[in-house]
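Homework-ish question, so no full write-ups if that breaks the rules, but can someone show me the predicted structure for this set?
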Amino acid sequence: DGGITQSPKYLFRKEGQNVTLSCEQNLNHDAMYWYRQDPGQGLRLIYYSQIVNDFQKGDIAEGYSVSREKKESFPLTVTSAQKNPTAFYLCASSIAGVRKETQYFGPGTRLLVL
Amino acid sequence: SQQGEEDPQALSIQEGENATMNCSYKTSINNLQWYRQNSGRGLVHLILIRSNEREKHSGRLRVTLDTSKKSSSLLITASRAADTASYFCATDGAGGTSYGKLTFGQGTILTVHP
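A: Not a homework solution, just the prediction itself:
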């Protein structure tokens, strides 16, 4: 059963704390993406990775960090430098190539600040 | 700022009616995609239309693309209560340097009343 999984479904962060959101895919996709969605808004790209051990900043990378040590995994860390982290975070993946086209999304993680 | 702007922001119709959503964008594109999001869930790909196509059908979905006006529309015919969701357009920029980065609009919230 192929797909993208994200965990946890809900995550609570205390002031000054770093938290890590998990994203795993078994679709054998080379490219993976992290988006942030605020209420009533579209998706904004945080980071993306086209291949293992390589990743690029998206439009709103400040306060976030990622790693891509395995093809299947692309964890996102929300650091204490991100002052407004409350949002819905979506991970996606797609086939490699210049025209990657369709993206497949995970179910999302909702991050709340205590 | 977002590449895509969607109109209307919210649409409320009765079951059986048709629903039309519009998307405008600013720069040249390789393709335009439509995605659906149920409340609190990930996005699901609906349909992709390439820049050299004018119309595409998939089941009850009809998408048109007018590159001269930089706009697209999504028509859902014979709507059902289960079509209630947010619908997003996403553009994949032309020029070969976008590396599959999609830019999402802010979405249209569709409510279909039984």
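Now go work out the reasoning yourself. Hint: The longest strand of chain B covers residues 29-37.
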